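Q: I'm building a small set of examples for a reading group on sequence design. Run inverse folding on the following structure and report the sequence directly after it, with nothing in between.
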């Protein structure tokens, strides 16, 4: 596909965007991203795994502080335990490569002690910097992996079981899990998820969501037309009933109508972060 065709497939809208952009492998990879949960059983060569980690940790890092780490799970029983905590993550037990990406504010604090300097930035920004560093590194790993034909899927649901996960990984203070990541050779093509239109996500000079509801209504209709949600797949039917107008916005607002990970803030504070 051309860049323009990839953009039209991603957003489900006719556009001239990309028509004058030369085809490029990196752009093709990014525009074709799809979460992959079904993998062939063959392992990933170790040299390639290490190369992908090298690429990931070449990512931008706030002030070169390098506050991210990855915990690669090679113990299959441990991977199965983590995946088995939730029915929705059971598939992750079969991933040929599984890791947990973490924000790591411990490293710089240990180095401050080593050098005899006070750590004067113990506030919310310290947590945010580590979280952002980990997210950028993980996304860079995903981009690098997908560029060589691997499939990936981040797994944020592992934070639903934050205490047992922390114990499984022996996480010390100031280190916290961001997401799991499954990687492998795809067994079948993964589904491309349509995204919100750029008019809803790219603002010019100031934030302006005055057209949001109309934009999302149109987006819901486009997305459902191509991949309608059957009644049995609708979320929390016992609470909200079956909707004749079920789309992305109905699905995601139903999801956020139910409390989830309400213990995460307490966990982060217990890990030593001052979130003031």
């Amino acid at each position: 596909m051309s860049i323009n065709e990839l953009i039209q497939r991603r957003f489900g809208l006719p556009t001239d965007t990309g028509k004058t952009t030369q085809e490029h492998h990196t752009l093709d990879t990014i525009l074709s991203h799809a979460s992959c949960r079904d993998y062939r059983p063959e392992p990933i060569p170790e040299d390639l795994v290490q190369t992908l980690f090298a690429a990931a940790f070449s990512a931008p890092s706030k002030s070169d502080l390098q506050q991210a780490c990855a915990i690669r799970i090679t113990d299959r029983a441990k991977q199965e335990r983590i995946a088995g905590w939730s029915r929705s993550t059971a598939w992750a037990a079969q991933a040929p490569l599984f890791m947990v990406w973490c924000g790591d504010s411990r490293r710089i604090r240990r180095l401050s002690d080593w050098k005899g300097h006070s750590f004067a930035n113990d506030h919310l920004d310290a947590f945010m910097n580590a979280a952002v560093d980990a997210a950028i590194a993980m996304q860079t790993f995903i981009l690098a992996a997908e560029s060589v034909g691997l499939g990936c899927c981040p797994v944020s649901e592992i934070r639903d079981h934050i205490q047992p996960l922390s114990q499984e990984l022996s996480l010390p203070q100031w280190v916290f899990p961001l997401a799991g990541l499954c990687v492998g050779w795809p067994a079948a093509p993964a589904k491309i998820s349509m995204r919100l239109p750029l008019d809803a996500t790219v603002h010019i000079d100031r934030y302006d969501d005055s057209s949001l509801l109309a934009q999302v209504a149109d987006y819901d209709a486009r997305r459902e037309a191509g991949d309608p949600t059957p009644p049995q797949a609708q979320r929390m039917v016992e609470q909200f009933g079956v909707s004749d107008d079920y789309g992305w916005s109905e699905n995601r607002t139903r999801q956020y109508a139910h409390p989830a990970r309400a213990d995460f803030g307490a966990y982060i504070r217990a890990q030593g972060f001052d979130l003031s």
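The chain has twelve helices and four strands.
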